[in-house]
Amino acid sequence: MFKKPHPSPAPAEDRTARVRFTGLSAGYPGRPVLRQLDAEIPALAVTALVGANGSGKSTLLGVLAGVIRPTAGEVHHTGDRPPAFVPQRGAVADALPLTVRQAVEMGRWGDRGPWRRLTRRDHTLVETTLERLGIGHLAARQLGELSGGQRQRALIAQGLTQQSDLLLLDEPTTGLDPEAREQIAALLTELVADGVTVVQATHDLEAARSADSCLLLRDGRLAGRGRPEQVITTEALSRLWQPA
Ligand code: ADP
After folding, report:
1. pLDDT (tens digit, 9 = 90+) per residue, 140-153?
2. Could you tell me which residue ranges the ABC transporter domain spans (predicted)?
3. pTM for the model
4. What are the strands of the beta sheet with 17-28, ordered from one edge?
5. Rounded distance from Cα 56 to ligand 1 centre (Å)
């Protein structure tokens, strides 16, 4: 299904960084969340942001997406396209009267300005992406009628039609059955082979273990970084899930 331009990828830590941040602090008015983070997101790899609820994963995704401004520190992107942000499935109302095709077409709005008039190329891209994610046959269905795994694919398709080289996903496998979780993990690996850098916030440890690289957050601070087998250790986890 995918071309594989990188048949034998180098280990994640040998690749150049797609995003690098130093001394990064960020949060909400009156609520500091991220504190002094120094880390990088390796290019052409799947990076998992792991941590308990409230540890700051979504906030970090928001900073990477450019929707939350750091209160201190630097964030340096090496890509030239804005990142594509895929929100949590739960944040997309079930009752939203949108077909799968319409939801995916929304990914082209950013490039088409206020009138949102899609070109023939946009429509071709939407159809290709629907097929590529195996949801072409569902294009006319309402988003709210889909299974969790199918809806996640539709949201990822929307992200991919933004044609960014950096895809940010908030809890893409949470609440899915094991088979759908595995399929999403395999899809993310395929996207990397196809030239996309993927970051997923997750508290699904299986998803984190199948990533190339992990950043562990604990109460807004970096508690570990590196390959999953180095950072997702029993000891790290016992500390991670305890209150700070
Ligand atoms: P995670 O994704 O790891 O669950 P979040 O980044 O969503 O963590 O949240 C980190 C902290 O920031 C939590 O204490 C949460 O309550 C708080 N928070 C999240 N969003 C907002 C907001 N819009 N306004 C104020 N506080 C927020």
Report:
1. 999 888 888 999 99
2. 19-244
3. 0.89
4. 31-42, 17-28, 72-77
5. 6
How far, in Å, CA of 184 to CA of 134, rounded?
A: 12
For residue 48, give the nearest of 239, 178, 188, 194 by alpha carbon: 188
Nearest CA to ligand 1 atom 6: 56
Token output for 206: 């299986």
For ligand 1, the distance from its centroid to the CA atom of residue 113, given in whole angstroms, is: 31
Q: pLDDT tens digit string along 203-220?
A: 888 889 999 999 999 999
For the chain, list the domains and their CATH numbers. 1-83+164-244 (3.40.50.300), 97-163 (no CATH)
